[in-house]
Description:
With 458 residues, chain A is α/β, with parallel strands linked by helices. Chain A is built from 16 helices and 17 strands. In chain A, the strands form four sheets. In chain A, strands 7-6-8-11-12-16-17 form a seven-stranded mixed beta sheet, sandwiched between helices. In chain A, helix 4 (62-79) links the parallel strand 1 and strand 2. The radius of gyration of chain A is 22 Å and the shape is globular. Chain B is mostly helical and 343 residues long.
Amino acid sequence: MTKSNFTRRGVLKTGATAGAGLAVPTVFTGAVWADGHTGFTNAPQGDTVTLGFNVPQSGPYADEGADELRAFELAVEHLNGEGDGGMLQTFSEKNLDGTGILGKKVAFVTGDTQTKSDAARASARSMIEKDGAIMVSGGSSSGVAVAVQALCQEAGIIFMAGLTHSNDTTGKDKKANGFRHFFNSYMSGAALAPILAAQYGEDRKAYHLTADYNWGYTTQEAVQSSTEAMGWETVNSVLTPLTQTDFSSYIAPVLQSDADILVLNHYGGNMVNSLTNAVQFGLRDREVNGKKFEIVVPLYSELMARGAGENIAGILGSQNWDWKLENELGERYSGTNAFVKSFGEKYGFPPSQAAHTCYVQTLLYADAVTRAGSFNPCAVAEALEGFEFDGLGNGPTLYRADDHQCFKDVVVVRGKESPENEFDLVEIVEVTPADQVTYEPDHPQFAGGSLGECNPGA
Amino acid sequence: MEAIILQVLNGLDKGSAYALIALGLTLIFGTLGVVNFAHGALFMLGAFCAVTFSRLLQLSHSVVDETRTDFLGNPLKVDVYYVQEIFGETAGAAIIDWAVPLSILFAIPVMIAIGVAMERGLIRHFYKRPHADQILVTFGLAIVLQEIIKYFYGANPIPTPAPDAFVGSFDFGVLLGFDPGGIVYPYWRLIYFLFAAVIIAAVFAFLQFTTFGMVVRAGMADRETVTLLGIDIDKRFTIMFGIAAAVAGLAGVMYTPINSPNYHMGMDFLVLSFVVVVVGGMGSLPGAVLAGFLLGIIEAFASMTEVLDVLPGINQIIIYLVAIIVLLTRPRGLMGRKGVMED
């Protein structure tokens, strides 16, 4: 097992039980964990348990972070029996009854990731060491997720990832203490490819503009391999600096190429600006090779779509979840309306997919603790591994044991031509079933790294 | 050939923003001797003048539409704009559509007032302090300003489109006899370049052909003598700070349809604009303009696929490489004057 010498404070906090904790083997059955409330980092004392929500509260993703925080607050309310209960009513597991987690009232602390790995690690460390957080969740960037996940592994804390889409989070950088509900680049590519083929044809030439960092690479690789597999040709792929604001000089060569599809592997401000620039240069009005030129944005975000305004009209992309799912596609996506109602009545607008994944992760953690009968991270991990559930908005979902990645349907959306308001910017085109976006644990795009051993810390 | 022409055009619009910001920076440095790291924030404030004015034009009251529902199934509240109630539906919609150009009228007095307040309230206390102190205080001010904007407007980019008449692009290549679709250039970027040219010409004409401008130029050349002649040069320099703020602000206003404004857009331009000032020559107004366009075009060329294939990553360092080469061969920059920043 992994021994952690993470902090002196953490060791002191678990006191005399630390020795016993170090002696705990990692492979256990649920029954063994059942009475274990000691022997791991930040074992809850008293009648409260503290969760740590690490979200961007400053920096370019601050609005997305604010939405995540709203969802976390709502989840804590529901766990403590306040409000209307939200998805507790629809969740296939009925272990959560509004009395907190294992009878302990849920409290929370927040940290500011600033969407910087070092700042995110510092705030997570502070929540673990100073505030005694038993679990850390949230975030809006894969770089941050990978960094905080590694820290939590080292500290003996469960990390329930927020919005992180890079393959690496549950690929080469996966950790035994880390779990991701959000979908990933591979799934975007696999979900989009058949719909792109159906909408735009199989004889297409794609030009990729890719953000020059980890998420950009994995997204491009995923979309490129999926689209090439169905017959598309990739004519060029250009990396763009993360700090780039004006993409005109990158759009111009697209005009000179014989590409008839532009794939923007960009997120956040990059996506807003590159898409706006592409539309300004008339790409959507072009005809190349006798076909109408099209633009694809593999990862959509409602909050970013607002920034791009009317430029997103007609653009295809993928999402982890959409607040209209249950209304449009029925009961398979139950839980969606319950969450939208809770969130909408409290805050006055529908939740983003970032908010949804954070809310769901909090409930899944609480449920896993309850089923395990322990806050011990190794017991919680064991309860989450291979866990199948439903009623949380995505349809039947599996938390795969091999890589701690959730497998569920992926939503393919298109920017609305005439949105009625700023919250209704995309329309659901189709949902790609989970089995079409499922891959083997040893798939090349996820190669390298291993989960390692669960670390209870202390 | 089409690719080269297109990159020149791309360089011109980006160069326009660099030139306008660098022009204001140089005006402030040349008159007050202050290295103003808050100048990028003034560009950002200008953009948010457009956002604010656009929102003012879209002030509305809600009317419940019983025939439609919102996302929770409640009767939908529909916004009715006051502008349309006052001026009629068509005229009101046209006014809202033209929000960005109209916000120039709003931004000029606001930005001059902000500039004068900034100079009188803070920066004048640092005239006799080292440049390092000036940089620190103005950089701190820039951070404060952008955090204020983030508090009120959020961190997400805010779409602020051009009037419908200028949305889209025109085929520049056909005019030059190339194949259709080869050189397509957005209308608004062309307008931005022309606007920048007019502003730059206006600033030069103001300094060259007005008595006020003549006194300011005299003050820039020999402050003590002008003061001994009984002229309150400080007051004029304060006004020049306001004008420089307005120039940066107008650059920001007109930039909003090119890229949706956000609170840190000023920082994105600030460092590059300083490089432009240094390459152009500290204190040289024509140098700032020349270097702005030159570096804009060079940056555009460095982003060409053909160039990146040979020199990967060159687009990220090209401006700094050019700056190093210029400073090694011409230490005062392209058009720098002797004695400026050489003490």
